[in-house]
Amino acid sequence: MRRPWVVIAALFLIAQAHAQSAPEQPKMDMDHGSMDHGSMDHSSMAQPATDAPQMDHSAMDHGSMGDMDMGGMSMAPMQGGKAPADARSPDYSDGLVHSPMKHMDMDDSAPVGMLMIDQLESWAGRDDHGQRWEAQGWYGGDTNRLWVRTEGERARGSLEDADIEALWSHAIATFWNTQLGARHDFGEGPGRTWAAFGVQGLAPYWFELEATAYAGQGGRTAARVRAEYEVLFTQRLILQPEFEVNAYGKDDPARGIGSGISDLQLGLRLRYEIRRTFAPYVGVKFVHTMGNTADLIRSEGRRVTDLQWVAGVRVWF
């Protein structure tokens, strides 16, 4: 009976000796209440590597698998290519199919017209004073027009010199027209009628030019060249310089005209466009007669050079 107790006592002594020989682990007092387990990144924690079992394919008989028939499958291109025969027309709308659009008929030949009274003014020179007008109007399309223009001057209470022209204007280039027609002079002395041919247009740098040649009865010839320009100080305040020169091939004493260059005129007018169609202006005009015409003017006791102050209105409809 003593032997079991001896065995138990021996085992107890061996366990006690082993416990005393093991190193004592320090105790950690950790407060888990302050730890935010939701923000912890567990992805960086290393996992124990596991060896996946290798599959032995040598025992598999791939030759015994049934053949797959891919011929019945159709893969159309994702973009490009021809549309199917039954595809809807892109012009289809509510059951209507529109045909190709034909050329549009543009109404660019409709006749229109305009009347411009460029100068309707009073003038005062060194010895005389009077009134003057200059106007033009046209009616027609972009290519062919009926063009009428007139100018004249009154002095000492009577009509001194005037003319009117009726011309057929035909466009030959951008901003340029040929003009063919007739001119009639009236006023002091006998009336004169001329055939007229010239060009009118807009030169580079926006110069408006007009050059006309005339042929009259008895071998008379004449020519007139005019140029205008506009300087815009504002959209409504505009300065307009003007130049004109006249020449005649033969003397016409009955109308106070000599052969050669007859007169040179320079004008400067400043207008304010109250409306685009109505603009009062003031200005100055320099008139100088030359050649045989100057001799006729001197014989009448008048000045060959005159500086005139002008005031008037410019109107167009």
Automatic annotation (TrEMBL):
It holds the Pfam family CopB. Keywords: Signal. This is Copper resistance protein B. Residues 22-58 are annotated as: Disordered. GO terms for biological process: intracellular copper ion homeostasis. Residues 26-40 have a biased composition (Basic and acidic residues). It comes from the Bacteria. GO terms for molecular function: copper ion binding. Residues 1-19 form the signal peptide. GO terms for cellular component: cell outer membrane.
